[in-house]
Amino acid sequence: MIEHEQAVAIGSDINDVWAYVSDMQRWAVSVPGCKDCDVINSDRSIWTIRAGAGALIKTVKVNVLVEEWKAPTGVRFRFDVANEPVTGDGSYSARATDSGSHLVLVLRIIGSGPMAPVWETLGKAIVPALAASFVESLRLQIEAEYPRVEKASAGPAMPCPKRSRWQRLVDWLRGRRPSSKRVSAPPAGTH
Amino acid sequence: MTKIPSHWHSEADLIAVGSGLGGLASAITAHDHGLSAIVLEKADQLGGVTAYSFGEVWIAANHHAREAGLEDTVESGFRYMRRISMGYGDDRLILNQAVHGPEALRYFEENAGLRMRIVKNLPDYYWPEANDGTSEGRFLEVLPFPAITLGEWQEKTRLSPHVPYGLSHVEIFGAGGPANIENWDFSVMSERMASDVRCLGPGLAAYFVKAAADRGIAMRTGVDVAELIEDAGRVIGVRCVKDGADLFFKACKGVVLATSGYDNSRRVAASMGQLAAESMVMPAIDGAAIRLAGRLGGRVVRVPDVTMLGYHVAGEEHEGDLPLWRNALYELGLPHTIVVNSSGRRFGDESFYRSLCFAIDYIDGGTQTHPNFPCWVVFDSQARRKYPFGPILPGQPFPEGIATTADSIGELARKIGIDASALEETVTRFNGYCQIGRDPEFSRGTRPWGAFMSGDPANRPNANLGPLMEGPFYAIELMRLGGGGISAAGVAADEHCRVLDYDDRPIEGLYVAGNAMARLDNGASMQSGVTNARGMTHGYLIGRHAAGNPSDLLGRAIASLGIAG
Fold first, then answer.
1. Count of alpha carbons within 13 angstroms of residue B283, beta-carbon side
2. Which pTM does this prediction carry?
3. From the candidates B160, B186, B325, B387, which should be mutated to test the interface with A, based on the most A CB atoms within 10 A?
4. Assembly ipTM
């Protein structure tokens, strides 16, 4: 078995983060190599992922089952790779911080059968980079959609934080005006 | 024709086009004989088809065999190859390879850090029926290579999507071969993968990249040689394209075309009289040598050759996002497995691809059809339970779309659209052969190479014979594949690997190596490991000739053997 943990600080409110991550379809943008995410129901989804190992590039289907939604702080899930002797599980946990949110993703991969050592070696080589890429992309996506809004203070009115060109572009693409809502939007609820 | 440029971007005595064994060995030998060399590679990684291969090197009368007490001679190796070339080769060139193969091997081991060993118990294809075949000693493989020593070239040196490069032949076949994959030592494989220790083709290529890098030989990737530049009948350089811009490289002593075959050019294949086939190799293998030499009058020669048979597992790709086509060499000869045509009949010895593949291209002139193509591999649940099918492990479910399944042979035949009663009869007859341990139709199971490479040594009474009895049954349609860089046609060359024109005159300053060279040194035959041996040997000969120190061994051998020079 291999286990990998990846943490990231996100400059968005924890409830906004939850609003984003509780929609499985939206993870697909950030999962490296993800070609498709077919949401079967609120707990089940099938991910089509294209990944390279050595000179071989392989597209696999990963069946994901979310076992627990605990808004806005946690998700537990397990998965198996279709037609391959690979299973695993993982978790998402979040906590609010002064600057936004702190996320920790944990992924465990279990290879079975005689080739288990090979699967795990491949996993060790690939997963850390993939996880780092994933959380960084997730952070950018969430921060672009849910920029942190400073709390009002007794002092003089603070100007709105200046949005990056990238954030403005994402807003424009989404047909959304910058900032305004979702300061403390309630979570989508427990699924 | 491009005019001589007013400015050369770079200059060397020898420019090797292609970075498989032929290109790298040329550059290394040239360097060691006092020349400067540059290697230009079209792809983004070095190693070419060599790195995609199983890494076998077939050399008769090599010093490892001699040290192991295995009797062999250059003359015997020559006679063996001449016998199986069937008159389609050139005796001088067959002898040239036989004489220089052992020399080149010794040269690179003594001078370039290459470390090889015999693959024990691996016989020649045609042992014992061909005189001068041997039961072992001619197949060599590299010792595991620590790729971390490649430094900056580690990531730029190819791996293979086809071979389990974390294990060696000795380890794979010592554990029962591909049929017994569950007995392989995957802990060793995973340790080697983790530390990037390479065996097989990737290991072989890595040794030569390392030798070139250690010599400071410039190796440039992503450089497409578009044209040869000639002056007064002599090749003096190349025009390349790099990132869309032209670059001109001057070659003071010569240019080596080491660009392999033409698997990815259906246009070149068609012009050589070959049917469209899928490719197992990288996009760069597109017939560049034929195109480049052809413009200068380089002669193209074709020998009889087979298209391979293979399959594609949905979702598998390799360089260039190309679908990965896998050679079915190992799978077809396993027990409980047969190959049939659309009439439901077997048509060759499934344990020996040469038998099967020549039959695919057979044309029935009476009906103007290929009676043996399309074709299917058919197997039962015993095979599925016991053996891998390529990357699909025993018992592992088949990915969607690759196989047709049915509970009976008749139903399977109907599903794939072939004659059901004929297939049932074929299976019944084959099962009878399995009971007696003998195949009177195609002699399957009598060839030691087939048992070694495509059989289950634990299966009794015969490594290649086992009945199809247990449903569900499976069928997979097999497709024509190119030879993995080993193409039927190539550029003709003399004993120093100088390209010849249609009047048999050398084109000054132009050499050809490896699979790019016409296979007149093996004619209608093929032997695993011959192509890697050719690349290494051609490189050795080219480096020496370009440096003004050509080998004279052929002349001496001709004199001693009494062959017409």
1. 13
2. 0.92
3. B186
4. 0.89
